[in-house]
Design a protein that fits this description.
The complex is a heterodimer of chains A (about 325) and B (about 280). Chain A has about 325 residues and is mainly α. Helices cover about 75% and strands about 0% of the residues of chain A. Chain A has two domains: about 90 residues, no CATH class; about 220 residues, MetI-like fold, CATH 1.10.3720. Chain A has a two-stranded antiparallel ribbon. Chain B is built from twelve helices and no strands. Classes of the chains: A mainly alpha (about 325), B mainly alpha (about 280).
Chain lengths: ~325, ~280
């Protein structure tokens, strides 16, 4: 087998116990929730007679012990069946699939912006630790880190939408505008500016600080002194050597931060009325739809596991010491 | 010894900010007597116009200053309790994991990973969906996603402490393993938890604010998050209603970060000095 495939399989195998714990937890929550899948079904299709209810319960194995129910739950999940959403009166999987792309777009753009701009500013700050630039940027990163995204979103709406009328106030695109092609992409982009800004600011501060702190530590290492002694230009030392070495922890953070950003999207999507995956979680709680909430949680866990897998792959490219071993 | 003079301006600024907030929370009934949810004046009064309502009133005529002052109590209480619970539980798991090793370590670390895989905010939502809003639920819900870092940090620290001479000495003295873990090792592993405490408190404040902003807080208490949500309904006409509680929120989290980072730097320096001696 090619080394990459082996590596991927190994990583997925390592994620299995974690996934199993998440599954068990969500099954326990489902068991603890009042009512069962049949109650939800009755709520949808109106009255069923007692015989039909019994048949349905048997079919879904709800009349058996918890072990069999767990088996039925896992096998349903394996087939991509996340259960029935009573709030949307549709299968959870189809609701999730419909909402996911918007959130992935929002998260992807926010992550890219936070990572690129944050580490770039981090390099500026870390190029000369202790300089006024460093002190200003470090303090600014702490300040960014303290601003709740949803509040920043509201402030941005007041400034850019209500007062300046530059950007739309919410949603993901203009309703029934009939735009196609580039015009539609431009419209979606305009709608994304404020949500992306609100979601990425905290992480921008995070990457800035991470990069800066790591660079400040690397300057103290003997090889930095050796580079200076060899007479390399400062720009070259900063970019080719110090920053290159400092980027590894920032890449690690990309994986860790995926979970936090998914959590953040719950509130941001509510603020900007974006019909996304995160907002689904809040809707599930307020409409008492446990299967939907658990569907969102399971999918988030999968997304986080995949994000970390991608980060592991990126390591090999960045750090020759962690080349993929088979 | 770490004194006021040598902790740096960031830590001093943070501690002063936190002290002011603590005072405000303690003196809430004196600054704004009565129920902060009671109607006390004309609706939508702008800030700085009326001495009786220095920060104005909301859509229903409730005093914004009273909300801020009383909200600080709820915010600080929930944040402190849930951060404390998270740190205690996390260090318990981390100590057991690091000290016992083997299969226990493996199982506890997989559990920690599982909790890190699910976004903390979704864990909190799941807990709230199970037992409905209320202060104890909120504390539990927020700590649910907040303990994993403490577990990892404590475990790493315990692993490095486990082989030290004083642990061997305790064993020779005939102390039982769990006694050694919790009376000898855990207290020595507290150092790194200090800087983690600030991060935990800050993230607890932010999660609490987001939860109550979405309407999943305690409906009988005023919180900054619920004030921001309340102001959002009249965002065009009265943006100050959302802006003011947000500033309180930012100031609090900023104070926690500045104090934590300043103290952590000092802690790091003094630890290094201790090691050097």
């Amino acid at each position: 087998m090619p080394p990459l495939a082996t590596f991927l399989l190994k990583r997925l195998a390592a994620a299995l116990p974690v996934l199993a714990i998440v599954l068990l937890g969500s099954f326990a929550l489902l068991e603890a929730a009042p009512g069962d899948a049949v109650d939800a079904y009755i709520g949808r299709s109106g009255a069923l007679d007692a015989g039909q209810i019994e048949a349905l319960r048997r079919e879904l194995r709800l009349d058996e012990g918890p072990a069999n129910r767990l088996a039925a739950y896992v096998s349903a999940l394996a087939r991509g069946d996340l259960g029935w959403s009573s709030a949307f009166e549709r299968p959870v999987a189809s609701v999730v699939a419909e909402r996911l792309p918007v959130t992935l777009l929002l998260m992807g753009v926010s992550t890219a912006l936070a990572f690129l701009l944050g580490s770039l500013l981090g390099v500026v700050a870390g190029a000369r630790p202790g300089s006024w630039r460093d002190r200003f940027l470090s303090t600014a990163s702490l300040a960014l880190y303290a601003v709740p995204g949803f509040w920043l979103g509201l402030v941005l709406i007041v400034v850019f939408s209500v007062h300046l009328h530059w950007l739309p106030i919410g949603g993901i695109e203009a309703v029934a505008s009939g735009r196609t092609g580039l015009a539609r992409i431009g419209d979606i982009a305009a709608h994304m500016v404020l949500p992306v800004a609100s979601l990425s600011m905290i992480y921008l501060g995070l990457y800035l600080r991470l990069m800066r702190d790591r660079m400040a530590a690397i300057w103290n290492e003997p090889f930095a002194l050796a580079l200076k002694a060899r007479g390399l230009s400062r720009t070259r030392i900063v970019w080719r050597h110090i920053a290159r070495n400092a980027i590894v922890p920032a890449v690690t953070m990309l994986g860790l931060q995926a979970a936090a950003m998914l959590g953040g999207s719950v509130v941001i999507e509510s603020v900007f009325a974006i019909p996304g995956f995160g907002r689904l979680a809040a809707e599930a709680v307020s409409r008492r739809d446990t299967p939907l909430l658990l569907g969102v949680i399971l999918c988030s866990a999968l997304i986080v596991i995949l994000a970390n897998l991608l980060v592991d792959l990126a390591y090999g490219k960045l750090d020759p010491r962690v080349r993929i071993r088979t | 010894m770490t004194g006021w003079g040598n902790i740096g301006w960031q830590a001093r600024f943070g501690l002063l900010l936190l002290a002011a907030l603590g005072l405000m929370a303690l003196a809430a009934p004196l600054i704004a007597p009565g129920d902060p949810l009671a109607l006390s004046g004309p609706p939508l009064l702008r800030p700085f116009l009326d001495a009786a309502h220095p920060l104005g009133t909301d859509r229903l005529g409730r005093d914004v200053l009273a909300g801020i002052v009383h909200g600080s109590r709820t915010t600080l209480m929930i944040a402190l309790f849930s951060a404390a619970a998270a740190l205690m539980f996390g260090s318990l798991i981390g100590t057991l994991s690091g000290f016992l090793g083997g299969i226990v370590d493996l199982a506890l670390m997989r559990l920690t990973e599982a909790f890190q895989t699910v976004p903390a905010f979704l864990l909190a939502l799941a807990a709230i969906s199970m037992s409905g809003p209320g202060i104890p639920t909120l504390v539990f819900a927020i700590s649910l996603g907040n303990w994993t870092q403490a577990a990892r940090v404590t475990r790493a620290e315990v692993l490095s402490l486990r082989e030290r001479d004083f642990v061997a000495a305790a064993r020779v003295l005939g102390m039982r393993p769990l006694e050694i873990a919790f009376r000898e090792i855990l207290p020595n592993a507290f150092g790194p938890l200090v800087s983690l405490a600030a991060i935990s408190v800050a993230s607890a404040i932010l999660i609490e604010a987001a939860l109550s902003f979405l309407g999943f807080g305690d409906p009988n208490r005023v919180t900054w998050g619920s004030m921001i949500a309340e102001g959002r309904t009249v965002l065009r006409a009265a943006p100050y209603l959302s802006v003011v509680p947000g500033i309180a929120l930012v100031a609090t989290v900023l104070g926690v970060h500045f104090a934590g980072r300043g103290l952590a730097l000092r802690e790091g320096v003094s630890r290094r000095e201790r090691v050097a001696q």
